[in-house]
Amino acid sequence: MTRETDTRAVEAANTAFYEAMERGDFETVSELWLSGHDGAPHSVISCVHPGWPVLTGRGEVLRSYALIMANTEYIQFFLTDVKIALAGEVAVVTCTENILSGGPAEDGAELGPLVGQLVVATNVFRRTFDGWKLWSHHASPVLTENDEEESQEPGS
Amino acid sequence: MTRETDTRAVEAANTAFYEAMERGDFETVSELWLSGHDGAPHSVISCVHPGWPVLTGRGEVLRSYALIMANTEYIQFFLTDVKIALAGEVAVVTCTENILSGGPAEDGAELGPLVGQLVVATNVFRRTFDGWKLWSHHASPVLTENDEEESQEPGS
Question: What Pfam families does the record point to (chains A, B) (predicted)?
Fold first, then answer.
């Protein structure tokens, strides 16, 4: 496979990951993370959601996705600045996740209030015989200069 | 080399990185990042400091360290939860950086006020003929439940 083919395959896996999150498709998210069944038995996966501590291993990581999906009524990722660095069997993808999300409805409304979030992610993929799989995901909020003012609730 | 030897070498590189930061030793930090001179010419490095956007390439990344060092009078990292996942030529290290830091002094004081920070990091290392080198560093703040209250300045 050429370098270009690899890069395209990694980008497709990265996109598939976010699309599965948008659909709340736990099974696909689970399949996109490395497991012991894809020829890479020694891999311990790790995951950091924005503002969270590190989660390690499939048990912890997949439980976190189940929890996030249960508390997310609507989520959309607009990916920008996607950059892929390849080295043999491993790829490091960085991207900006422009997130629009809403929690479960309250007071009988159809959807909770929508919230915009600026998050950056570093996603490490490994080549397996079943395609490129996530080995590590680290996402974090981008803080803007006026975040401190914005975080103060009116009337506080 | 055995797996255990590799793991120890990766941990040593990770520790060396934080110790160089503590000393404000720009040259060593610079040497610990992948470059085109270590047999890994295709690697584009990436770096995310807590709350920052993604920085890509040695120019951007090293400038950010020069800037941080210029604005940091004192910094100490107490690393906990260091976990190393190895796969061939690449290692993913996760750790908690318990940071104590102080900016430049104001009003003739010897040191600015010390600030504690809880940060988690994912550090990706690559094996080179010159040892394990950083390919990607992503650090982010761990937000605690009462962060919103704490972020409000007294009197605001």
Answer: SnoaL_3
